[in-house]
Amino acid sequence: MPMTATTTDNQTLAIDTIRCLSMDAVQTANSGHPGTPMALAPIAYQLFQNTMNYAPAKPHWPGRDRFVLSCGHASMLLYSTLHLIGVQATDRYGNPTGGESISLEDIKNFRQIGSVCAGHPEFAEAAGIETTTGPLGAGVSNSVGMAMAEKWLAANYNTDDLTLFNYNTYAICSDGDLMEGIATEAASVAGHLKLDNLCWLYDDNNITIEGDTELAFSEDMGKKFEGLGWNVLHVDDANDVDALGKAIAKFQACGDKPTLIVVKSIIGYGAPNKQNTHGAHGAPLGWDEVALAKKSYGLPEDEKFYVPEGVREHFAEGVGKRGATASSQWEDVWTKYQAAEPTKAAELKAMFAGELPEGWDKDIPVFEADAKGDATRNSSGKVLNAIAKNVPFMIGGSADLAPSNKSDLKFEGAGEFLPRQYKGRNLHFGIREHAMSGIANGLCLSGLRGYAATFFVFTDYMRGGMRLSSI
Protein backbone atom coordinates (compact mmCIF):
# COMPACT_ATOMS: atom_id res chain seq x y z
CA MET A 1 0.00 0.00 0.00
CA PRO A 2 1.52 3.39 -0.93
CA MET A 3 2.29 5.69 1.96
CA THR A 4 2.31 9.47 1.96
CA ALA A 5 3.37 12.02 4.53
CA THR A 6 0.36 13.72 6.08
CA THR A 7 2.03 16.41 8.18
CA THR A 8 2.71 20.11 8.20
CA ASP A 9 5.81 21.53 6.50
CA ASN A 10 7.71 21.87 9.77
CA GLN A 11 6.87 18.31 10.71
CA THR A 12 7.92 16.99 7.33
CA LEU A 13 11.22 18.87 7.43
CA ALA A 14 12.01 17.70 10.96
CA ILE A 15 11.11 14.07 10.21
CA ASP A 16 13.09 14.02 6.99
CA THR A 17 16.11 15.54 8.75
CA ILE A 18 16.09 12.62 11.19
CA ARG A 19 16.04 10.30 8.18
CA CYS A 20 18.87 12.05 6.36
CA LEU A 21 21.19 12.29 9.36
CA SER A 22 20.64 8.58 9.92
CA MET A 23 21.38 7.67 6.31
CA ASP A 24 24.49 9.85 6.18
CA ALA A 25 25.90 8.46 9.41
CA VAL A 26 25.44 4.84 8.33
CA GLN A 27 26.85 5.52 4.88
CA THR A 28 29.87 7.41 6.23
CA ALA A 29 30.63 4.57 8.65
CA ASN A 30 29.95 2.09 5.83
CA SER A 31 28.17 0.02 8.44
CA GLY A 32 24.83 0.03 10.21
CA HIS A 33 21.08 -0.14 9.73
CA PRO A 34 19.58 2.79 7.78
CA GLY A 35 16.16 1.42 6.86
CA THR A 36 14.43 1.40 10.23
CA PRO A 37 15.37 4.99 11.19
CA MET A 38 14.03 6.07 7.80
CA ALA A 39 10.77 4.22 8.41
CA LEU A 40 10.26 5.20 12.05
CA ALA A 41 11.36 8.84 12.07
CA PRO A 42 7.68 9.93 12.30
CA ILE A 43 7.20 7.82 15.44
CA ALA A 44 10.26 9.31 17.15
CA TYR A 45 9.05 12.75 16.12
CA GLN A 46 5.54 12.23 17.46
CA LEU A 47 6.76 10.82 20.77
CA PHE A 48 9.35 13.46 21.57
CA GLN A 49 7.82 16.52 19.93
CA ASN A 50 4.15 16.03 20.74
CA THR A 51 3.72 13.40 23.44
CA MET A 52 6.36 12.79 26.06
CA ASN A 53 7.02 14.76 29.21
CA TYR A 54 10.70 15.11 28.44
CA ALA A 55 13.05 18.02 29.04
CA PRO A 56 16.11 18.16 26.75
CA ALA A 57 17.77 20.56 29.17
CA LYS A 58 17.18 18.14 32.08
CA PRO A 59 17.18 14.68 30.52
CA HIS A 60 17.37 12.86 33.87
CA TRP A 61 14.65 14.64 35.85
CA PRO A 62 12.84 11.92 37.80
CA GLY A 63 9.35 12.73 36.55
CA ARG A 64 10.16 12.33 32.87
CA ASP A 65 8.56 9.83 30.52
CA ARG A 66 10.96 7.07 29.49
CA PHE A 67 11.82 6.11 25.91
CA VAL A 68 13.39 2.77 25.01
CA LEU A 69 14.61 1.90 21.50
CA SER A 70 14.38 -1.87 21.85
CA CYS A 71 15.44 -2.42 18.25
CA GLY A 72 18.87 -1.07 19.12
CA HIS A 73 20.27 -1.73 15.66
CA ALA A 74 18.25 1.35 14.60
CA SER A 75 20.42 3.44 16.93
CA MET A 76 20.74 6.35 14.52
CA LEU A 77 17.03 7.02 14.99
CA LEU A 78 17.74 7.76 18.65
CA TYR A 79 20.99 9.64 18.10
CA SER A 80 19.56 11.88 15.37
CA THR A 81 16.50 12.69 17.47
CA LEU A 82 18.47 13.43 20.66
CA HIS A 83 20.76 15.72 18.69
CA LEU A 84 17.98 17.67 17.00
CA ILE A 85 15.90 18.19 20.15
CA GLY A 86 18.99 19.56 21.90
CA VAL A 87 19.52 17.11 24.76
CA GLN A 88 22.20 18.45 27.09
CA ALA A 89 25.13 16.41 28.37
CA THR A 90 25.02 15.08 31.93
CA ASP A 91 26.61 12.34 33.96
CA ARG A 92 24.63 9.18 34.68
CA TYR A 93 22.92 10.85 37.66
CA GLY A 94 21.78 13.92 35.76
CA ASN A 95 24.46 16.39 36.80
CA PRO A 96 25.22 18.74 33.86
CA THR A 97 28.64 18.34 32.28
CA GLY A 98 28.31 21.02 29.62
CA GLY A 99 27.54 20.96 25.92
CA GLU A 100 25.37 18.66 23.85
CA SER A 101 24.71 15.07 24.79
CA ILE A 102 25.14 14.08 21.14
CA SER A 103 26.80 16.57 18.83
CA LEU A 104 26.77 16.61 15.06
CA GLU A 105 30.44 15.62 15.23
CA ASP A 106 29.47 12.55 17.26
CA ILE A 107 26.97 11.58 14.57
CA LYS A 108 29.63 12.03 11.90
CA ASN A 109 31.71 9.52 13.88
CA PHE A 110 28.96 6.93 14.20
CA ARG A 111 30.36 3.46 14.98
CA GLN A 112 33.90 4.82 15.43
CA ILE A 113 36.06 4.15 18.48
CA GLY A 114 35.54 6.87 21.06
CA SER A 115 32.23 8.11 19.69
CA VAL A 116 29.23 8.04 22.01
CA CYS A 117 27.23 6.97 18.95
CA ALA A 118 27.99 3.27 19.14
CA GLY A 119 26.44 0.82 16.71
CA HIS A 120 23.85 0.03 19.37
CA PRO A 121 22.86 2.44 22.18
CA GLU A 122 24.87 2.02 25.38
CA PHE A 123 23.57 3.27 28.71
CA ALA A 124 25.42 6.24 30.25
CA GLU A 125 27.45 6.92 27.11
CA ALA A 126 25.20 9.91 26.47
CA ALA A 127 22.24 11.50 28.23
CA GLY A 128 18.97 10.36 26.69
CA ILE A 129 20.05 6.74 26.31
CA GLU A 130 17.89 5.12 28.98
CA THR A 131 19.25 1.58 28.57
CA THR A 132 21.63 -0.56 26.53
CA THR A 133 19.84 -2.25 23.66
CA GLY A 134 20.95 -4.42 20.80
CA PRO A 135 20.12 -7.98 21.86
CA LEU A 136 16.57 -8.09 20.58
CA GLY A 137 13.90 -8.25 23.25
CA ALA A 138 16.14 -6.79 25.93
CA GLY A 139 14.76 -3.28 25.66
CA VAL A 140 11.11 -4.24 25.91
CA SER A 141 11.85 -6.34 29.00
CA ASN A 142 13.64 -3.34 30.54
CA SER A 143 10.60 -1.20 29.76
CA VAL A 144 8.39 -3.49 31.86
CA GLY A 145 10.77 -2.97 34.80
CA MET A 146 10.64 0.79 34.26
CA ALA A 147 6.84 0.73 34.25
CA MET A 148 6.79 -1.39 37.40
CA ALA A 149 9.21 1.05 39.05
CA GLU A 150 6.86 3.96 38.36
CA LYS A 151 3.93 2.07 39.86
CA TRP A 152 5.95 1.20 42.96
CA LEU A 153 7.32 4.73 43.39
CA ALA A 154 3.86 6.25 42.98
CA ALA A 155 2.34 3.86 45.51
CA ASN A 156 5.03 4.48 48.10
CA TYR A 157 5.93 8.15 47.70
CA ASN A 158 3.04 10.09 46.16
CA THR A 159 0.72 11.71 48.67
CA ASP A 160 -2.85 12.92 48.33
CA ASP A 161 -1.56 16.43 47.71
CA LEU A 162 1.83 15.91 46.06
CA THR A 163 2.41 13.74 42.99
CA LEU A 164 6.05 13.08 42.13
CA PHE A 165 5.65 9.99 39.99
CA ASN A 166 3.12 9.74 37.18
CA TYR A 167 5.13 8.96 34.07
CA ASN A 168 4.75 6.61 31.12
CA THR A 169 7.27 4.33 29.43
CA TYR A 170 7.34 4.06 25.64
CA ALA A 171 9.28 1.42 23.71
CA ILE A 172 9.75 1.01 19.98
CA CYS A 173 10.13 -2.64 19.06
CA SER A 174 10.60 -4.63 15.88
CA ASP A 175 9.50 -7.95 14.44
CA GLY A 176 12.76 -9.37 15.76
CA ASP A 177 12.11 -8.08 19.28
CA LEU A 178 8.74 -9.75 19.42
CA MET A 179 10.04 -13.02 17.98
CA GLU A 180 12.37 -13.35 20.96
CA GLY A 181 10.98 -15.38 23.85
CA ILE A 182 11.97 -12.76 26.41
CA ALA A 183 9.49 -10.33 24.86
CA THR A 184 6.58 -12.72 25.32
CA GLU A 185 7.66 -13.45 28.90
CA ALA A 186 7.87 -9.74 29.69
CA ALA A 187 4.59 -8.95 27.93
CA SER A 188 2.89 -11.66 29.96
CA VAL A 189 4.14 -10.09 33.19
CA ALA A 190 3.02 -6.62 32.09
CA GLY A 191 -0.42 -7.81 31.07
CA HIS A 192 -0.93 -9.69 34.32
CA LEU A 193 0.13 -6.66 36.37
CA LYS A 194 -2.13 -4.33 34.33
CA LEU A 195 0.67 -1.84 33.67
CA ASP A 196 -1.37 0.88 32.00
CA ASN A 197 1.66 3.21 32.00
CA LEU A 198 3.44 1.07 29.37
CA CYS A 199 3.18 1.46 25.60
CA TRP A 200 5.03 -0.58 22.99
CA LEU A 201 5.01 0.71 19.40
CA TYR A 202 5.56 -2.30 17.16
CA ASP A 203 7.22 -1.67 13.79
CA ASP A 204 5.37 -4.17 11.62
CA ASN A 205 7.38 -3.94 8.38
CA ASN A 206 7.51 -7.62 7.38
CA ILE A 207 11.27 -7.48 6.71
CA THR A 208 14.20 -9.30 8.31
CA ILE A 209 17.84 -9.70 7.25
CA GLU A 210 17.11 -12.95 5.43
CA GLY A 211 14.08 -11.59 3.61
CA ASP A 212 10.33 -11.37 4.26
CA THR A 213 9.20 -12.29 7.76
CA GLU A 214 6.91 -14.94 6.28
CA LEU A 215 10.01 -17.13 5.98
CA ALA A 216 9.80 -17.88 9.70
CA PHE A 217 7.07 -15.75 11.28
CA SER A 218 3.31 -15.86 10.77
CA GLU A 219 1.78 -14.88 14.12
CA ASP A 220 -1.14 -12.50 14.45
CA MET A 221 0.64 -10.30 16.95
CA GLY A 222 -2.47 -8.28 17.80
CA LYS A 223 -4.45 -11.36 18.81
CA LYS A 224 -1.47 -12.71 20.71
CA PHE A 225 -1.19 -9.57 22.81
CA GLU A 226 -4.92 -9.41 23.41
CA GLY A 227 -4.55 -12.87 24.90
CA LEU A 228 -1.74 -11.55 27.10
CA GLY A 229 -4.06 -8.90 28.51
CA TRP A 230 -2.99 -5.92 26.40
CA ASN A 231 -4.92 -3.10 24.77
CA VAL A 232 -4.12 -3.45 21.04
CA LEU A 233 -4.34 -0.58 18.56
CA HIS A 234 -3.42 -0.28 14.88
CA VAL A 235 -1.93 2.49 12.73
CA ASP A 236 -1.89 1.69 9.01
CA ASP A 237 0.80 4.17 7.97
CA ALA A 238 3.86 5.15 10.03
CA ASN A 239 3.95 8.47 8.16
CA ASP A 240 0.51 9.44 9.45
CA VAL A 241 1.53 11.52 12.45
CA ASP A 242 -2.07 12.41 13.25
CA ALA A 243 -3.05 8.74 13.41
CA LEU A 244 -0.04 8.03 15.64
CA GLY A 245 -1.13 10.85 17.93
CA LYS A 246 -4.68 9.51 18.16
CA ALA A 247 -3.44 6.00 18.95
CA ILE A 248 -1.14 7.31 21.68
CA ALA A 249 -4.03 9.31 23.13
CA LYS A 250 -6.04 6.07 23.34
CA PHE A 251 -3.14 4.49 25.22
CA GLN A 252 -3.10 7.40 27.65
CA ALA A 253 -6.85 7.02 28.18
CA CYS A 254 -6.62 3.27 28.87
CA GLY A 255 -6.62 2.68 32.62
CA ASP A 256 -6.44 -1.05 33.07
CA LYS A 257 -3.84 -2.63 30.77
CA PRO A 258 -0.64 -1.95 28.80
CA THR A 259 -0.93 -0.97 25.15
CA LEU A 260 0.58 -2.36 21.95
CA ILE A 261 0.32 -0.09 18.91
CA VAL A 262 0.88 -2.08 15.73
CA VAL A 263 2.32 0.33 13.16
CA LYS A 264 2.70 -0.62 9.50
CA SER A 265 5.82 0.91 8.00
CA ILE A 266 7.99 0.73 4.90
CA ILE A 267 11.62 0.01 5.74
CA GLY A 268 13.97 2.42 3.96
CA TYR A 269 11.08 4.78 3.21
CA GLY A 270 12.02 7.20 0.42
CA ALA A 271 14.86 5.18 -1.11
CA PRO A 272 13.32 4.31 -4.49
CA ASN A 273 15.30 1.16 -5.24
CA LYS A 274 15.69 -0.32 -1.77
CA GLN A 275 12.64 0.65 0.26
CA ASN A 276 10.49 -2.26 1.38
CA THR A 277 13.35 -4.75 0.80
CA HIS A 278 15.78 -6.47 3.16
CA GLY A 279 18.52 -4.57 1.30
CA ALA A 280 17.56 -1.51 3.38
CA HIS A 281 17.86 -3.31 6.70
CA GLY A 282 21.42 -4.10 7.71
CA ALA A 283 23.72 -2.43 5.19
CA PRO A 284 24.42 1.09 3.89
CA LEU A 285 22.26 2.15 0.98
CA GLY A 286 25.12 3.49 -1.15
CA TRP A 287 25.67 7.19 -1.78
CA ASP A 288 23.70 7.12 -5.04
CA GLU A 289 20.64 5.69 -3.30
CA VAL A 290 21.09 8.14 -0.40
CA ALA A 291 21.00 11.00 -2.90
CA LEU A 292 17.84 9.65 -4.51
CA ALA A 293 16.19 9.33 -1.11
CA LYS A 294 17.09 12.93 -0.24
CA LYS A 295 15.64 14.01 -3.58
CA SER A 296 12.38 12.26 -2.73
CA TYR A 297 12.28 14.22 0.54
CA GLY A 298 12.99 17.48 -1.27
CA LEU A 299 16.32 18.02 0.52
CA PRO A 300 19.75 18.79 -1.03
CA GLU A 301 20.96 15.59 -2.65
CA ASP A 302 24.69 16.06 -2.19
CA GLU A 303 24.83 17.82 1.17
CA LYS A 304 25.83 15.51 4.00
CA PHE A 305 24.75 15.90 7.65
CA TYR A 306 22.50 18.77 6.63
CA VAL A 307 20.22 20.30 9.24
CA PRO A 308 17.85 22.77 7.53
CA GLU A 309 17.25 26.14 9.09
CA GLY A 310 14.34 26.08 11.47
CA VAL A 311 14.44 22.39 12.43
CA ARG A 312 16.22 22.85 15.75
CA GLU A 313 14.00 25.86 16.48
CA HIS A 314 10.91 23.78 15.71
CA PHE A 315 11.91 21.20 18.30
CA ALA A 316 12.82 23.93 20.77
CA GLU A 317 9.33 25.39 20.46
CA GLY A 318 7.79 21.96 20.97
CA VAL A 319 9.52 19.46 23.24
CA GLY A 320 11.95 22.11 24.50
CA LYS A 321 9.32 24.46 25.89
CA ARG A 322 6.90 21.76 26.98
CA GLY A 323 9.64 19.84 28.76
CA ALA A 324 10.97 22.94 30.49
CA THR A 325 7.50 23.70 31.83
CA ALA A 326 6.89 20.13 32.96
CA SER A 327 10.25 19.75 34.68
CA SER A 328 9.86 23.14 36.39
CA GLN A 329 6.44 22.15 37.69
CA TRP A 330 7.90 18.90 39.00
CA GLU A 331 10.69 20.80 40.78
CA ASP A 332 8.06 22.96 42.50
CA VAL A 333 6.29 19.83 43.76
CA TRP A 334 9.63 18.35 44.85
CA THR A 335 10.43 21.47 46.88
CA LYS A 336 7.09 21.22 48.69
CA TYR A 337 7.55 17.49 49.16
CA GLN A 338 10.91 17.89 50.90
CA ALA A 339 9.29 20.18 53.46
CA ALA A 340 6.18 18.07 53.94
CA GLU A 341 7.77 14.60 53.88
CA PRO A 342 11.42 14.93 55.05
CA THR A 343 11.94 11.22 55.79
CA LYS A 344 10.65 10.01 52.46
CA ALA A 345 12.43 12.86 50.68
CA ALA A 346 15.73 11.73 52.21
CA GLU A 347 15.14 8.24 50.81
CA LEU A 348 14.43 9.67 47.38
CA LYS A 349 17.52 11.90 47.48
CA ALA A 350 19.67 8.84 48.10
CA MET A 351 17.94 6.99 45.29
CA PHE A 352 18.30 9.89 42.84
CA ALA A 353 22.02 10.15 43.66
CA GLY A 354 22.62 6.43 43.30
CA GLU A 355 23.60 6.15 46.95
CA LEU A 356 22.67 3.76 49.74
CA PRO A 357 21.01 5.18 52.86
CA GLU A 358 22.98 5.65 56.05
CA GLY A 359 23.13 2.41 58.05
CA TRP A 360 22.17 0.11 55.20
CA ASP A 361 24.58 -2.55 56.47
CA LYS A 362 24.05 -2.20 60.21
CA ASP A 363 22.03 -5.40 60.66
CA ILE A 364 24.02 -7.79 58.45
CA PRO A 365 24.42 -10.93 60.55
CA VAL A 366 27.72 -12.54 61.45
CA PHE A 367 27.87 -16.31 61.09
CA GLU A 368 30.10 -18.26 63.44
CA ALA A 369 32.48 -20.80 61.96
CA ASP A 370 30.82 -24.20 61.83
CA ALA A 371 32.17 -27.50 60.55
CA LYS A 372 28.86 -28.31 58.89
CA GLY A 373 27.67 -24.79 58.18
CA ASP A 374 24.24 -23.55 57.25
CA ALA A 375 22.76 -24.00 53.79
CA THR A 376 23.86 -21.08 51.67
CA ARG A 377 20.25 -20.34 50.72
CA ASN A 378 19.48 -19.81 54.41
CA SER A 379 22.41 -17.50 55.12
CA SER A 380 21.79 -15.66 51.86
CA GLY A 381 18.17 -15.06 52.79
CA LYS A 382 19.14 -13.72 56.19
CA VAL A 383 21.65 -11.28 54.68
CA LEU A 384 19.20 -10.21 51.95
CA ASN A 385 16.51 -9.43 54.51
CA ALA A 386 18.95 -7.61 56.78
CA ILE A 387 20.02 -5.32 53.94
CA ALA A 388 16.60 -4.78 52.36
CA LYS A 389 15.08 -3.80 55.71
CA ASN A 390 17.40 -0.77 55.75
CA VAL A 391 17.24 0.04 52.03
CA PRO A 392 13.62 1.10 51.59
CA PHE A 393 13.83 1.22 47.80
CA MET A 394 15.18 -2.34 47.42
CA ILE A 395 12.66 -4.65 45.79
CA GLY A 396 12.83 -7.96 43.95
CA GLY A 397 11.85 -11.58 43.79
CA SER A 398 12.39 -14.96 42.22
CA ALA A 399 11.15 -17.00 39.29
CA ASP A 400 8.62 -18.94 41.37
CA LEU A 401 11.32 -20.12 43.79
CA ALA A 402 11.33 -17.58 46.62
CA PRO A 403 10.25 -19.96 49.43
CA SER A 404 12.87 -22.45 48.29
CA ASN A 405 15.85 -20.15 47.71
CA LYS A 406 14.88 -17.88 50.63
CA SER A 407 14.82 -14.70 48.53
CA ASP A 408 11.47 -13.47 49.86
CA LEU A 409 11.46 -10.43 52.15
CA LYS A 410 9.84 -11.37 55.44
CA PHE A 411 10.18 -8.29 57.65
CA GLU A 412 7.13 -6.31 58.68
CA GLY A 413 5.75 -4.11 55.92
CA ALA A 414 7.57 -5.84 53.04
CA GLY A 415 4.31 -6.77 51.33
CA GLU A 416 3.70 -8.03 47.79
CA PHE A 417 3.64 -6.29 44.39
CA LEU A 418 0.44 -7.46 42.68
CA PRO A 419 -2.02 -6.25 40.03
CA ARG A 420 -3.34 -2.88 41.21
CA GLN A 421 -1.50 -3.40 44.51
CA TYR A 422 1.86 -1.89 43.74
CA LYS A 423 3.19 -0.95 47.15
CA GLY A 424 4.82 -4.24 48.15
CA ARG A 425 8.47 -5.16 47.78
CA ASN A 426 8.14 -8.87 46.98
CA LEU A 427 7.82 -9.32 43.22
CA HIS A 428 6.42 -12.44 41.57
CA PHE A 429 8.02 -13.11 38.17
CA GLY A 430 6.46 -16.49 37.52
CA ILE A 431 8.63 -19.07 35.76
CA ARG A 432 10.17 -16.50 33.43
CA GLU A 433 13.91 -16.27 34.22
CA HIS A 434 14.94 -14.31 31.13
CA ALA A 435 12.26 -11.67 31.54
CA MET A 436 13.06 -11.52 35.25
CA SER A 437 16.61 -10.42 34.48
CA GLY A 438 15.49 -7.78 31.99
CA ILE A 439 12.80 -6.47 34.33
CA ALA A 440 15.27 -6.28 37.21
CA ASN A 441 17.56 -4.22 34.97
CA GLY A 442 14.66 -1.87 34.24
CA LEU A 443 14.01 -1.46 37.97
CA CYS A 444 17.66 -0.59 38.57
CA LEU A 445 17.74 1.82 35.63
CA SER A 446 14.85 3.61 37.34
CA GLY A 447 16.86 4.16 40.53
CA LEU A 448 15.56 1.25 42.58
CA ARG A 449 17.81 -1.46 43.99
CA GLY A 450 16.27 -4.38 42.17
CA TYR A 451 17.27 -7.99 42.65
CA ALA A 452 16.40 -11.29 40.98
CA ALA A 453 16.92 -14.75 42.43
CA THR A 454 17.04 -18.32 41.17
CA PHE A 455 19.19 -21.41 41.50
CA PHE A 456 22.51 -21.28 39.68
CA VAL A 457 21.63 -23.91 37.11
CA PHE A 458 18.65 -21.83 35.96
CA THR A 459 20.78 -18.76 35.33
CA ASP A 460 21.43 -20.25 31.90
CA TYR A 461 17.95 -19.01 31.05
CA MET A 462 18.80 -15.42 32.02
CA ARG A 463 22.38 -14.95 30.88
CA GLY A 464 21.46 -12.25 28.34
CA GLY A 465 20.04 -9.98 31.00
CA MET A 466 22.87 -10.77 33.40
CA ARG A 467 25.46 -9.80 30.78
CA LEU A 468 23.70 -6.53 30.06
CA SER A 469 23.47 -5.72 33.76
CA SER A 470 27.25 -6.00 34.00
CA ILE A 471 27.88 -3.43 31.28
Looking at this protein, list some descriptive labels.
Rossmann fold, 2 domains, globular, 471 residues, 11% strand, alpha/beta, 16 helices
Give the topology, please.
Blueprint: H1 9-29, H2 35-51, E1 66-69, H3 75-85, E2 88-90, E3 96-100, H4 104-108, H5 138-157, E4 169-174, H6 175-179, H7 181-193, E5 198-204, E6 207-208, E7 211-212, H8 221-227, E8 231-235, H9 241-253, E9 259-264, H10 287-297, H11 311-340, H12 342-352, H13 376-388, E10 394-398, H14 402-405, E11 426-428, H15 433-445, E12 449-453, H16 463-470
Parallel strand pairs: 1-4, 4-5, 5-9, 8-9, 10-11, 10-12
Antiparallel strand pairs: 2-3, 6-7
Helix pairs in contact: 1-2, 1-3, 1-10, 1-11, 2-3, 2-9, 2-11, 5-7, 5-15, 7-15, 11-12, 15-16
Question: What does this protein structure show overall?
Answer:
- It is a single chain.
- With 471 residues, this protein is an alpha/beta fold.
- The protein is 43% helix and 11% strand.
- The chain is built from 16 helices and twelve strands.
- The protein has helices at residues 9-29, 35-51, 75-85, 104-108, 138-157, 175-179, 181-193, 221-227, 241-253, 287-297, 311-340, 342-352, 376-388, 402-405, 433-445, 463-470, and strands at residues 66-69, 88-90, 96-100, 169-174, 198-204, 207-208, 211-212, 231-235, 259-264, 394-398, 426-428, 449-453.
- The two termini are 42 Å apart.
- Mean pLDDT is 96; it is low at 1-8.
Helix segment tally: 16
Pick out the low-confidence regions: 1-8
Average pLDDT over all residues: 96
Number of domains: 2
CATH superfamily of the largest domain: Thiamin diphosphate (ThDP)-binding fold, Pyr/PP domains
